[in-house]
Amino acid sequence: MVWEERWHPLREEWVIVAAHRQNRPWQGETLGAPAAEIPAYVPDCYLCPGNARVSGAHNETYAGVFVFDNDHPCVGMNAPPPLSLPSGLYQQRPAQGIARVVCYSPRHDLTLAELEPEEVVNLLRAWQQQYTELSRHPEINHVLIFENKGEAVGVSNPHPHCQIYATNFVFKYIETEARVSQRHLAETGRVLFQEVLEAERADGRRIIFENETAVAFLPYFARYAYECYVTPKQTHASLATLTEEELRDFAVALQQLVVRYDNLWRMPFPYVMALHQAPTDGGDYRGFHFHIEFHPPLRKPNLLKYLAGPEIGGGNFLSDTAPEEKAAELRALSGVHYRRAGA
Predict the structure, then answer these.
(1) What residues act catalytically?
(2) Which range (25-29, 86-90, 110-114, 224-228) has the least confidence?
């Protein structure tokens, strides 16, 4: 079974080949069930408290955030050496790293949008702790925290959770973001993301939610119809250095956005969420501004934004919607989740 990293010389990026993950458990969504009918506990869910996982380990009977090492990791500190030497200019190496799962809540039937405010704060604290701890490993050069939510993005289990890939390389988008941010700081003395934030706040049409220290907005250059960013107003290289006030404000902004997502079509809204944090390889990242990006695949309730010729073949997105119009839709929605509005 192949488990290694292979270098893509034309794109200058590493590709993780983890063929053993093909057989990982797949429970998918509770298809066809209205959200209100999804139970809070599912006996055969491998993420619910106390239940057995495929590895034979049992989850703790957790009451809050629960973190464990992924039983089917794409990277591992014990990743084997490559099976054979490649030919020509090709290169490969062990897929070293640490993969973890973070369960948001013991309840199977909730989403990030439906957690209690203090539960969201506790989740952010867990993300802080994971980034800080994993960044101390000398082998780890980047900590990517992400959530795949919904059948439309191929989530393997609807229990509210995210994953962490702590890797021996820096993921391409973060590498590019770090490089251009560092260059902009050197050339102008200004943080690039701060200039983006200033432009968004000056225009105002794409701001979804704002409080004292955090803001959620749909960027001018959005590639997906409902692509949004959540960010602290002050520059931090990672979530780890936010103050208590900033953390709480950020939690509110984050939840206000995801509540509006669910309220848009009164359904659990699918997305890919990624925390953009500075690499942990010891570089100079003073120009890097932590934020969370949401990439929702739907343009309408049953219409995907398909990635086709321009996106996959050419590498540039073609947007079918105007960011200002989509931001206005989200901004006009209630900040109270539709499942709680009538309670």
Answers:
(1) 161
(2) 25-29
CATH of 189-337, one of 2.30.30.110, 3.30.428.10, 3.30.1050.10, 3.40.1010.20: 3.30.428.10
Find out whether 333 and 260 touch, Cβ atoms under 8 Å: yes
Q: Which residues of 60-90 are buried (b: 16+ CB within 10 A; e: fewer)?
A: eeeeebbbbebebbbbbeebeebeeeeeeee
The pair of three-digit structure tokens given for residue 211, joined into one six-digit string = 């409080």
pLDDT digits (tens, 9 = 90+) for 217-237: 999 999 999 999 999 999 999
Helix (H) or strand (E) holding 167: strand 161-167
Q: Provide the CA 155 distance to its chain's centre, in angstroms.
A: 13
From 166, 158, 273, 156, select the one nearest 226 (Cα to Cα). Answer: 273
Q: 54-57 long-range CB contacts below 8 Å, 24 or more apart?
A: 54/24, 54/25
- Alpha helices per DSSP H over the chain: 117-135, 172-188, 192-203, 244-265, 323-331, 338-341
Radius of gyration of the chain (CA): 20
d(CA 30, CA 158) in angstroms, rounded, equals 7
For the stretch 249-281, pLDDT in tens is 999 999 999 999 999 999 999 999 999 999 999
**Domain limits, the chain:** 3-21+37-167, 189-337
Q: What is the rounded CA–CA span in Å between residue 224 and residue 305?
A: 7
First-to-last alpha carbon distance for the chain, in angstroms, is 52
Task: Could you please state the CATH topology (level 3) that the domain comprising 3-21+37-167 is classified under.
Answer: HIT family, subunit A (3.30.428)
